[in-house]
Structure formats: C-alpha cells, structure tokens
Design goal:
- The model has no long low-confidence stretch (mean pLDDT 93).
- It is globular, with a radius of gyration of 17 Å.
- It has a single domain, classed as Rossmann fold (3-Layer(aba) Sandwich).
- The chain has 221 residues and is of the alpha/beta class.
- A hairpin with a 2-residue loop joins strand 7 and strand 8.
- Helix 1 crosses helix 3.
- It is 28% helix and 28% strand.
C-alpha cells in the first residue's frame, strides 16, 4: 500500500466528498476502499484524488470524486439491483456500482477504454460486472429493465431521456447530466409505483458530452 495515496484518499473523503453533502455511509465506505489511483492514467497518478476531471482519452475524462459521490448517493444502489452504466471510462464508477451491490452492465463506445477497464475490473475480481463495447444511446439495451441507469457523460438536452425511462424497472432510477457548457444540471429521475416519472434536480455542474449523442439543431442566420 502507498501511504501517500492512503492519505490522499482520506483527504478526498473528508475535504471533497463530505462537504458536498455525500453522507451515505455505504457510499463513503466504497469510495474509501476502492483505490482510485488504479483507474487513473499513469500521467495523472498525482491527481488521482484531486478535485478535478482527469483526461482519459479523446475528449473524455474521469468525473471528479465529489460528483461521483453525489451520483452514487442519489442512485442508492441496493443489493442485487440490475445496473446499466452508460460510459465505462476507466471503470472507476463501474467498480463503485458493483461494490455497492449492483449487477453491472457497463457500455463503452471507445474500444480501447473498454478493453482497459475490463482488465482492471477483472484484476479486482468483481464477478458481477460485464463491460461491453458499443453505443448505449443508439436504442434500448438488451438485458433490461434496469433498476439503476448511470449516465457518466452529459446530454445536450432531454431528447434521449424517454428512451432511458423506457428501460427502467418499477422504482428504477436514472442519473443524467443535461445541458451544454458552461452550465449543466444533474437530474435524478425515478419511475414511481404509478408508472409516472418523478424528477429531482440535484446540482449544477459541467462535464464532457457522451460521444454520438445527437446534438440539438442550431439556427443559422
């Protein structure tokens, strides 16, 4: 174990995640136990626990730890929940979702990222995780309905949300970040017992867009 990273992980929890109103003990435990440095590109190891988005490829980045914490807390993953993650990235959020008890199907459009994440997760012996290379926004994903859908990149508007809602089981939750730079909003949508959708606004943020997401039409003058 690396004592420097151990201290940095402790500081991440106490100085970033808790002050951002992440108080769920299960989430805090998982983010304390999972070694984030294992999921960070070598060039950015020194920033593994910093309050920044870390580049991981062509226009992609790891979400800042405090945003991951808020997302995990909002989704409230329970034992044996069926989870769809859209945008595997390096696999860090995937590992957190699985450690919280989810059976995770994670879809990554970038084949190189998917391969690397698959290798990291396999090394952790997380048995209830499947990483698939593909475009999860091109239509309904096989294996649904899902109890949890975590979208790790932003969507420019709400056009894709009906397709995501259709894949929710009763009581299912979807986390999505909607908008365009410089201001976006994170939402949690829940399919309630009546079948209706309840939407809760969580926070304002700004993260890179998912690849291949349809962009809104622009007016040309």
């Amino acid at each position: 174990m690396n004592s420097t990273f151990d201290q940095a992980r402790f500081n991440m929890i106490s100085q970033q995640i808790r002050p951002w109103e992440v108080l769920d003990d299960r989430v805090l435990t998982v983010m304390t136990e999972i070694r984030r440095e294992l999921f960070v590109p070598d060039a950015y190891h020194g920033l593994a626990y910093a309050d920044v988005d870390i580049p991981i490829g062509d226009s992609d980045s790891m979400l800042a730890p405090k945003l991951v914490g808020r997302m995990l807390q909002a989704l409230a993953v329970q034992e044996a929940d069926k989870v769809l993650e859209i945008g595997t990235g390096t696999g860090y959020v995937t590992a957190c979702l699985a450690r919280l008890g989810g059976r995770v199907l994670s879809i990554e459009i970038d084949a190189a990222l998917a391969d690397a994440a698959r290798e990291r997760l396999s090394a952790m012996q997380l048995r209830r995780v499947e990483v698939v290379t593909g475009d999860a926004m091109s239509g309904a994903v096989d294996g649904g309905p899902f109890d949890v859908i975590a979208v790790t990149g932003s969507l420019p508007d709400g056009e894709a949300l009906p397709m995501l809602r259709q894949q929710l089981a009763p009581g299912g939750r979807v986390f999505a970040i909607i908008g365009e730079p410089p201001l976006m909003e994170a939402w949690l949508e829940t399919r309630v017992s009546s079948g209706d959708i309840r939407r809760d606004a969580l926070l304002e943020t700004c993260v890179p867009a998912l690849k291949n997401v349809p962009q809104p039409e622009r007016f040309v003058f």
